[in-house]
Amino acid sequence: MIKLGNYNTLKVLRSTSVGLFLGDEEGTEVLLPNKYVPQDFQIDADLKVFCYLDNNERPIATTLEPYVLRNNFAFLKVVEISLFGAFVDWGLEKHLLVPFREQNGRMEEGKSYVVHCYLDEESFRLTGSGRIDRYLNNNQLNYEIHQEVDVLVCRRTPLGWEVIIENKNKGLIFETDVFKPIAVGDRLRGYIKNVREDNKIDITLQPIGAKMLEPTAQMIFEKLKENNGFLPFHDKSSPEVIKEALHLSKKSFKKAIGILYKERKITIEADGIHLV
Q1: What residues are paired with 272 via a beta bridge?
Q2: What are the φ/ψ torsions at residue 55 (nearest 5 degrees)?
Q3: In angstroms, rounded to a whole number, what is the distance separating the alpha carbons of residues 57 and 74?
Q4: Model confidence over 151-169: pLDDT tens digits?
Q5: Cβ neighbours around 42 below 10 Å, total
Q6: E strand intervals along 120-181
Q7: Across the chain, which distance is largest between two alpha carbons, in Å?
Q8: Residue 217 and residue 224: Cα distance in Å, rounded?
Q9: In order of start, what are the domains of the chain with their CATH numbers?
Q10: Is 170 left (phi over 0), alpha (psi -120 to 50) or beta?
Q11: pLDDT digits (tens, 9 = 90+) for 54-77
């Protein structure tokens, strides 16, 4: 079965004046228009394409890569407001509609929003929704502490930044765990810091525990090389100065320079740290 809103690997069946006809194992066919046909195609060869509905609501294939897949989230820009809702750019010729009923507040042209892409069961059309909370569920979780995950920053709160974890769960990065500038729409690598009894998930942007030391020390080592072997920071520097300059907590900084010192890569002087 050809999956709308996702990538499909289909067999090239025949070449026509309008493009290639591709098919799956069940005999379903879809057109890949000429403008997307690769020069080196071969009949009976497999081709990876994205399938969706064209302006005439017919299934169509493309070799373009959309910004979001079905049942996933992305940060998309509104390019047009119509009588039906907001159209957002998702990387294809036909824009994705976010109906007014799927907006938390009226979207504005030129602004970007976190959008969920889903298949509307009534119209059978791929549709966008800004009501992202209804598509996130923390009922069943199987994360391990310290596990590395993909996160999409979706909202600023008084406590920190809400994120979407692996396109399915909701988490929070506390403000005290943010040591570099971030914004809504950023895709980041995060780490599971805690899974609470109520299934709320705490995320940190830095590896936790022993895993954190080596990359942080390496980052400072690279900074030293970029700055002629000197950085004006040491264990007496204020946490605010370290956070602003290196996007690290002072605790992480001290652990990192401790590693570098033990490995005799640096000396710690009154004016800062020096590369040996």
Answers
A1: 269
A2: -65, -20
A3: 23
A4: 999 999 999 999 999 999 9
A5: 9
A6: 126-129, 148-156, 160-165, 169-174
A7: 76
A8: 11
A9: 6-62 (2.40.50.330), 73-134 (2.40.50.140), 148-204 (2.40.50.140), 210-275 (1.10.10.10)
A10: beta
A11: 888 889 999 999 999 999 999 999
Cα(164)–Cα(187) distance, integer angstroms = 9
CA atoms of 126 and 118, how far apart (whole Å):
6
Would you tell me how many other CB atoms lie within 10 Å of the CB of residue 34?
Answer: 12
Is 195 in contact with 141 (CB distance < 8 Å)? yes
Tokens representing residue 206 in the block: 């830095």
Q: Which residue has the tokens 């396109």?
A: 167
CA distance 5 to 222: 42
User: Which residue is it, tokens 């750019």?
Assistant: 89
In 3-state terms, what secondary structure has residue 243? Answer: helix
Q: What is the pLDDT of residue 212?
A: 53
On whether the CB atoms of residues 205 and 248 are closer than 8 A, the answer is no
